[in-house]
Design brief:
Among the domains are: 49 residues; 51 residues, no CATH class. It contains 6 helices and no strands. With 144 residues, it is mostly helical. It is a single-pass membrane protein. InterPro entries: TatA/B/E, TatB. One of its GO terms (molecular function) is protein transmembrane transporter activity.
Amino acid sequence: MLDIGFFELVALAVLAVLIFGPDKLPKVIQDVSRTLRKIRQFSESAKEDIRSELGPEFKDFEFEDLNPKTFVRKHVLDKDELGLKEIRNGFDFKSEMAEVTDAVHGRESTQPASSAGGSGTPDLLKKQATRDVGTPPPFDSDAT
């Protein structure tokens, strides 16, 4: 829940004993737990009020769905009606980035050309690879 390990918990307990003392510590713990219980009750009653105000058409509404990650995961990625997993797995960005990096640095590609060689599309980065290492790249004022 709070991602607190054993040593952190022990350190918090020792710190609480040092700050409040062993005689006041039970009273402080009761007060904190009572306050947390009241906050929890308040939030639950607010959620119920919102659900009752929204009406019966929103009876399956969950407040966790307001988080964008949860909403997308629940409504888009779980159903996968569009085949997004196949599309996402079809891209191999690591090999494409390696080819671009090799072309920029003027090295020969260490990986075989996957789709560029077989599809007939020209490799636009080959012109940059033939440039001398000591010369700066051409300046394009439209690109800046």
